[in-house]
Amino acid sequence: MESLAALIGPTDVELAALEVEQRRLEKKEAQGRRALQDYEAAYSQSLLGRQRCQDELRNLQERIEADLEMVAVSTDWPRQLPLDINARLNSLPIVTEIPQGLETKIRALKRRLRRMGPVNLEAPAEYQQVLERHGFLMGQVEDLEEASQSLQKVVAELNRLMEEKFLITFNKVKAEFETYFTRLFNGGEGKLVLTEPENPLQSGVEILAQPPGRRRQSIAILSGGERALTSVALTFAILKACDTPFCLLDEVDSRLDEINLGRFREAIKELAERTQVIIITHNRLTLESADAIYGITLAGDGTSRALSLRLDDVKAKAS
Question: Whose CA, among 51, 104, 173, 222, lies 20 to 30 Å from 32?
């Protein structure tokens, strides 16, 4: 142990010396790294400063070129014409005193130039084209406005005429309907009323019926026979008011009883004096009032056969 301790002692001393030297070198290395970082930061600052100086120099040059002479064109040519700055500077007059407000005026003029943008050499030709197009379109607009005013006048006149004709026809039909209603019902009262009297062309027509011994009510709540008789009265009123040359009635008497059917036949005869009436019916009483009958019958061989009969001829032969 003693011999080993004698060997370890110098080694420990040497190790301690090496550790001291290591710490010194590490400290020196740290100082070197800090110095390197400082140098790198200074280098970066120098680069930034150099870049700012270059930008300021470029901006200053652009300002000088813009203040002295700059012509921008909307072509593939260079953005600016060649400019000899030194020659321009030498040609400038010597200024000993700057007028008051000159800087403000210069800035305002520069702002106007920036808003104007680059010079378009084709602007006069484009303006002339746009001016011609504008003149043509304005002429078209004036023509359209005149046509619109003319159409509005025509529409207003047509509306006036249609309203006038409609009211005349409506009043005729209304009067005839009241007459036919009272006649077919043997009393009572029927009315045609506009739902919007202030706007006849857009108005609807409501039918009010008051059969004998009943109160006035809408046609919707009448019985089936009463509605049929009211419809017949309205149909006859329209035919008489409009002077129709002929009309076709299909089973209009199917829901009428014998009493109402008699008045229906009388109205048909009166209407037939000025209008050709064709009636599709299966009612015997209606057939008796016809001048001519056309029908389909089944022959003995099972085929359909058309028959026609003029009752005037039959009556003449019978007499």
Answer: 51
